Amino acid sequence: MIALIFWVLVLLACAYGFLCGGWEARVASIVTVAASLGTYGIYWAGAGGPWLSLQMGVLLVDLAYLGALHWLVLRSRYCWPIWMCAFQLAGVSTHFPGLMPVSLVSDIYEALQGFWSIPVILSMVLGVYYEQNQRNGYDRGQSFGRIDI
């Protein structure tokens, strides 16, 4: 049930970003769906294994996603990709306690991996909403909006 809710959230958020946002939101939507499918593919192929040790395949997907978001941050004129990248960095950092040989860590590792994907996606939705307001002339100086340099 949680996986279904996650996929509905991902698909709705990415559709909104792709249809209503600028090029930044389209790139973010594409890489978000690609990273989600990549993680799902790792588990579908059976390479994920139990959450008792470092999930190397998931870590590689998360690092690639972080790299794509970092590229987007460097080229975007909006602030919301910074939030996406920061939340993804927090998600990547949750892989490293998986190196410790403690049984409790596996439950924490699994829970934190799923947790950080939600703020990443919500950052994009909120950013696209503010981006739309700016394009339509409704900007009220929100800090999540555009960077004027």
Description of the structure:
By secondary structure, the protein is mainly alpha-helical. Helix content is 72%, strand content 0%. The chain has six helices and no strands. α2 runs antiparallel to α6 and α4 runs antiparallel to α6 (117-135). The longest helix has 22 residues, at 23-44. The N and C termini lie far apart (45 Å). The model has no long low-confidence stretch (mean pLDDT 82).
SSE blueprint and pairings:
Layout: H1 2-20, H2 23-44, H3 56-75, H4 80-93, H5 103-115, H6 117-135
Helix pairs in contact: 1-2, 1-6, 2-3, 2-6, 3-4, 4-6
Helix content: over 70%
Cα radius of gyration in angstroms: 16 Å
Return the structural class: mainly alpha
Mean pLDDT: 82
Cα distance spanning the termini: 45 Å
**Tally of contiguous helical segments:** 6
Q: How many β-strands, per DSSP?
A: 0
The general outline is: elongated
Listing every helix as H and every strand as E from the N terminus to the C terminus, the arrangement reads HHHHHH
Q: Could you give a short description of this structure?
A:
This protein has helices at 2-20, 23-44, 56-75, 80-93, 103-115, 117-135.
Features:
about 150 residues; about 0% strand; mainly alpha
